[in-house]
Amino acid sequence: MNWRRLFRRSAEADLTPELRARIQASFDEASRNEEHFPSTIDPRIYHVKVIREHLGPLRGKRVLDVGCGKGRFARVFREQEPEAEIWGLDISEEMLRFVPPEIQTRAGTMTKLPFADAFFDGAYATESLEHAVEIEQAVAEMCRVVKPGGRIAIIDKNAEQWGRLETPEWERWFTRKELERMLKRHCREVASRFISYWEDVEPDGLFIIWLAVK
Ligand SMILES: C[S@@+](CC[C@H](N)C(=O)[O-])C[C@H]1O[C@@H](n2cnc3c(N)ncnc32)[C@H](O)[C@@H]1O
Hints:
Elements: H1 3-11, H2 17-30, H3 46-55, E1 62-66, H4 72-80, E2 85-90, H5 93-96, E3 104-107, E4 120-126, H6 135-144, E5 146-157, H7 176-184, E6 189-195, E7 207-213
Parallel strand pairs: 1-2, 1-4, 2-3, 4-5
Antiparallel strand pairs: 5-7, 6-7
The structure holds S-adenosylmethionine (SAM).
S-adenosylmethionine (SAM) is lined by residues 23, 27, 67-69, 72-73, 90-92, 95, 109-111, 126-128, 131-132.
């Protein structure tokens, strides 16, 4: 009996083929809504800045945007450092159509990344882990594809604020401790804090960033 798998299953839903298809179809459809799913982001927004700072110098580095959507973060990082090799992975091919051609893309699920172990120098996920359903598996995959010493950043929403926004039935938010525990299974340094869109605005508790070093 695989007790770890049994335990994980009891704690989480499964990303069944039916659910995966539903999530994919929902984001394929959402890709048409540029207002709610924009393809660009203001590089001054703190979410962009704090990930960039954590990743460190990007020249010659290979970095994965997990659940990249239209690649709004990847686009900024690539513009800031044209010698970085930025990859974007998303479950929705319709979202990926908006990603600029300088960014390499793969369609797939973050719960089974189509990359070799330690292929990337760093990886980040912004508001995508909340849709992964098999959360522990997605975190393990993100860590697997990053080299030892590589950097990982996750931005998502705070479970203690659940209900503030409308959410699809598969979405999950996280407490700081919950994701810290998952990351600590794979990473030697893990920290988290509340953030807001602007560095000089006091965080209201909705967004959390988790920063890890493998
Ligand atoms: C709210 S959007 C965020 C997109 C992007 N990270 C951003 O900040 O603009 C969530 C994204 O996660 C993707 N997604 C959902 N489930 C996924 C999965 N299992 N594997 C990969 N991507 C997934 C969706 O297609 C969507 O593009």
